[in-house]
Amino acid sequence: QVQLVESGGGLVQPGGSLRLSCTASGLTFSRSIMKWYRQAPGKERELVASIVNNGGYTEYAESVKGRFRISRDNPKNTAYLQINSLKPEDTAVYFCNAHYLLTGVDYWGQGTQVTVSS
């Protein structure tokens, strides 16, 4: 059974930072493209960052470029999202997604809440 478990969310003041983690089990992590999405209240889920299976290429949404950094540690089966210079509009539930290259199946974590407020 594939599981993705996110952690690291919380309440932070504007300008602050958080590091989100997503630990996977039940799949070969190094054969997965990892992505972070977020969904704010009343809005559609949006892709914010992705990283290929060997970590050699990353992509970011325009709204987070320069502030967010995605990374991964394959031996630890974990992907990370470092989020800096947080703004109130970054408030959302953040989800990790694993696109498993061996089957083409996408798996989702349960989400972690990030709230940016003074």
The gyration radius over C-alpha positions equals: 13 Å
Strand content: over 45%
Q: Tell me the helix content.
A: under 10%
Low-confidence stretches: none
SSE sequence, one letter per element: EEEEEEEEEEE
Alpha carbon gap, first and last residue? 40 Å
Give a short account of the largest sheet: 7 strands, mixed
- Based on secondary structure, the structural category is mainly beta
Number of helices: 0
Rough outline = globular
Number of DSSP-assigned strands: 11
What average pLDDT do the residues reach?
96
Fold and architecture overview:
The protein is mainly β and about 120 residues long. Helix content is about 0%, strand content about 55%. It contains no helices and eleven strands. Strands 2, 4, 5, 6, 9, 10 and 11 form a seven-stranded mixed sheet that branches. The chain has a four-stranded antiparallel sheet with strand order 1-3-8-7, with no helix packed on it. A hairpin with a 6-residue loop joins strand 5 (about 45-50) and strand 6 (about 60). The model has no long low-confidence stretch (mean pLDDT about 95).
